């Protein structure tokens, strides 16, 4: 079966945020004082998530990304990953801040996790502290090396911010020269939990100009279907560079994603406010068929792009990204 939306786009990729909790306070994602976490019983249980993924695989979902908040803050994460690894998905990926991941790296490899996206916005310990407001740089770097040494495909996500880490952009890009990792530069979005508007100084074009000035031989690669990153190769580099126009939203025309928040809100676009709560539907005793019908209905009314989705919102887009999953 294939999940086709009202614009003819096939939806194959589920992003499941397993918790809204986080042990960092990244400037671009959360206010310094943190956010009000939802009560534990409001989070989807592992069993509920397994049921949902099973149902969505039946509908045509092929790839899964586990995200958060910080996924490894959730107790027994490996038990959950082991459960979802048996559900017939083609790929399971994880996005993490890398502060708690280190002990699990060998198990992730053994389980066949396809790739890990590691958030790292600077290679300066001081700036790491300024951005994340936590003293965890060393742990993240150790995780980075463990992932590379274990041979798990690794992508580094850097949110580029004027005056915070823009000076680190080239040094971060050079990680892909030395190591077989992709380094992806992300436009800052307004999902910071504080209502601060992201005055986007570093848009995708400026990021590209900076890379091009430093690496004149940079060469755009063909875009994979559904990809959000425009990917570039640089001769002599072990990995690729990528630019994700998350604020400019240049990739919506081929979007293949469906999101489920930690509380079970279905979002058919990163910029929408939530279409319906599938946890409530499950807890009210809905059958698998009813779950499927509800998802199909949501997919059949998808906004054509992130601008349309944002326009339809009741509240301004400013909730913390940790409540959506990225
Ligand atoms: N805690 C994990 C982490 O940081 O990787 C997983 C969740 S985090 C919300 C997922 C991704 O969203 C990260 O790569 C992070 O850099 C990105 N992100 C968070 N807030 C953002 C914002 N305001 N603009 C752009 N990207 C953001
Ligand atoms: Fe936590 Fe990830 Fe948000 Fe940073 S980006 S505060 S690590 S959820």
What does this structure look like?
The model has no long low-confidence stretch (mean pLDDT 97). This protein starts with 12 loop residues before the first strand and ends in a 15-residue tail after the last helix. It has a single domain, classed as TIM Barrel. Helices cover 29% and strands 16% of the residues. With 326 residues, the protein is of the alpha/beta class. It contains 11 helices and 12 strands. The protein binds S-adenosylmethionine (SAM) and iron/sulfur cluster. The site of S-adenosylmethionine has 23 residues, from β3 and β5.
Which terms would index this structure?
single chain; 326 residues; alpha/beta; TIM Barrel; 12-stranded mixed sheet; binds iron/sulfur cluster
Strand content: 15-25%
Helix fraction, binned, reads 25-40%
Please write the CATH class name.
Answer: Alpha Beta
Give the number of helices: 11
CATH topology: TIM Barrel
How many domains? 1
Q: Write the CATH architecture name.
A: Alpha-Beta Barrel
End-to-end distance, in Å? 27 Å
Q: State mean pLDDT (0 to 100 scale).
A: 97
User: Which ions, cofactors or small ligands are bound in this entry?
Assistant: S-adenosylmethionine, iron/sulfur cluster
Which structural class is indicated by helix and strand composition?
alpha/beta
Shape descriptor reads globular
Contiguous low-pLDDT stretches (5 residues minimum) are: none
Rg computed from alpha carbons, rounded to a whole number of angstroms: 19 Å
| Total beta strand runs | 12
The CATH superfamily is Aldolase class I
The string of secondary-structure elements, in order, is: EHEHEHEHHEHHEHEEEEEEHHH
Strand order of the largest sheet: 7-8-9-6-5-4-3-2-1-10-11-12
**Biggest sheet descriptor:** 12 strands, mixed
């Amino acid at each position: 079966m294939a999940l086709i939306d009202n614009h003819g786009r096939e939806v194959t990729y589920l992003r499941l945020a397993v918790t809204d909790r986080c042990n960092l306070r990244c400037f671009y994602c959360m206010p310094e004082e943190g956010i009000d976490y939802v009560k534990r019983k409001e989070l989807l249980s592992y069993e509920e998530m397994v049921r949902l993924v099973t149902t969505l695989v039946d509908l045509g979902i092929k790839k899964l990304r586990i995200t958060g908040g910080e996924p490894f803050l959730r107790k027994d994460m490996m038990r959950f990953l082991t459960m979802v690894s048996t559900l017939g998905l083609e790929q399971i990926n994880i996005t993490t801040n890398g502060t708690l991941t280190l002990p699990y790296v060998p198990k992730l490899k053994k389980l066949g996790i396809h790739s890990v996206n590691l958030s790292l916005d600077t290679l300066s310990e001081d700036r790491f502290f300024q951005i994340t407001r936590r003293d965890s740089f060393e742990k993240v770097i150790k995780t980075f090396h463990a992932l590379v040494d274990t041979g798990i495909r690794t992508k580094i996500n850097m949110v580029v911010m004027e005056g915070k880490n823009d000076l680190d952009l080239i040094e971060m890009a050079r990680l892909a020269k030395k190591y077989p990792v992709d380094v992806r530069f992300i436009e800052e979005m307004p999902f910071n939990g504080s209502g601060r508007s992201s005055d986007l100084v570093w848009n995708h074009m400026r990021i590209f100009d900076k890379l091009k000035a430093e690496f004149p031989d940079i060469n755009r690669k063909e875009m994979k279907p559904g990809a959000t990153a425009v990917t570039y190769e640089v001769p002599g580099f072990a990995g690729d560079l990528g630019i994700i126009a998350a604020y400019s939203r240049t990739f919506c025309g081929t979007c293949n994603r469906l999101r489920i928040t930690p509380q079970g809100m279905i979002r058919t676009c990163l910029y929408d406010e939530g279409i319906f709560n599938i946890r409530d539907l499950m807890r009210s005793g809905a059958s698998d068929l009813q779950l499927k019908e509800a998802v199909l209905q949501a997919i059949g009314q998808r906004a054509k792009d992130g601008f349309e989705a944002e326009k339809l919102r009741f509240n301004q887009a400013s909730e913390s990204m940790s409540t959506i999953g990225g």
